[in-house]
């Protein structure tokens, strides 16, 4: 009877399922790494805090100190703010002060606090094809535009992208969006630096991601810092709790735990101690 | 090429070292894809049978719609699922966003049309004399359904393999409604995207190999099953 064989098929489907269920069972053991009893806090954050490994470094410390599990989605600041507006996360860890203020003023967020900063740098090929090394960002961007040297933009409304757009507006009046040499990658910072390196182009990045890039490339690194230290290259990171009034389900108490924990002296010191290649990635500046 | 070889040796190392983040991504992938495939099959086979066996008004329209759904990009399914599961969405109150359940929902939307379309095509291709014979022998509707599905089981298996292939490799849904949360909703594909985004290409390739090994094991067991049937 053919039906008997159909049963085999059904059984095999069930077996697949059971394999999956068992897998779920074993998941509990791996969960031990991050699960605690005091609940889970959902955070939306910028890619740089995740890509550099800062959150993997701070997350377990936070769980150990407070018992709260920290879960995060690493997306651009633009998308993180959007998820906050939609009430899908409890807290934001982002770096676009102008947009953040607007977010708080519009009633979406509350309790915004500074945590740390670093700075933005413009990086480019060591051969410096546009000859802009050592200039300030205004002159450098002007010359890059004149020489039509490839420039790689994130183009994804991230905090870094917002900053870069403001620099172009200041330097040349408008973002050279439609020019052939202005490339919008729509991807993360490290991918964008990699693309710039492949195509002999310049790009703007936060210093933490740049150090991470250098640590990955080692001796094969063909890029260098072209512009740094100028006024207006400051990069502030802050946490914002999502407004309870707009989003009743937000875990304000857990969010407050994280906020308070981030600005403690101990955590601030840990942030300052977070290093790659012996270089400090973020400078703590809570309460300043 | 060295990237590829490094990736391969790192894949072995990753698996051997028992790295918890890798195993958590593997279990998340296996759990969610097994559920998605199972539900797609349970819903899809009867629906496909109805679509292939019966003649009714609008049948061609439905077939065209189902065939078109095969071309739905996963990122669009992910986006639609996000708008449903978001706190500001229609199903927000169920708190499904950033969970494996939300991923499974999206993957069922992805897998179901494949099962329905391919089952319907298989049922249509069955020898037309089968149905009058079965009914002449006094078979009930349920028996007709089961006998027909049994008749086309190899075709159904192909459908299942095709659906599993799409489900286990998709990334748009997992990223959008799963959120790629470490130890929770990070699947192998979102982990690959993350590692690639971080410029850790070797790790990305290693994880790709892991996914490939899983697919290989699924297919080896299915073809063993097929050999069992042939005997």
Produce a short descriptive summary.
The complex is a heterodimer of chains A (288) and B (231). Chain A is an alpha/beta fold.
Kindly give the count of domains of chain A. Answer: 2
So what's the CATH class of chain B?
Answer: Mainly Alpha
Classify the beta-strand content of chain B into a percent band.
under 5%
Low-confidence stretches of chain B: none
CATH superfamily grouping of chain B = MetI-like
By CATH reckoning, the class of the largest domain in chain A would read: Alpha Beta
Rg for CA atoms of chain B: 20 Å
Spans where pLDDT lies below 50 across 5 or more residues of chain A? 20-36
Average pLDDT across residues of chain B? 91
Cα(first) to Cα(last) distance of chain B is 43 Å
- The third-level CATH topology of chain B is MetI-like fold
Major pleated sheet of chain B = none
Largest interface: A-B, 44 and 51 residues
Q: Helix count of chain A?
A: 11
Give the total of beta strands of chain B. Answer: 0
Report the principal-axis shape of chain B: globular
What do we call the CATH homologous superfamily of the largest domain in chain A? Answer: Periplasmic binding protein-like II
Radius of gyration of chain A: 23 Å
Helical fraction of chain B: over 70%
In the CATH hierarchy, what is the architecture of the largest domain in chain A at level 2? 3-Layer(aba) Sandwich
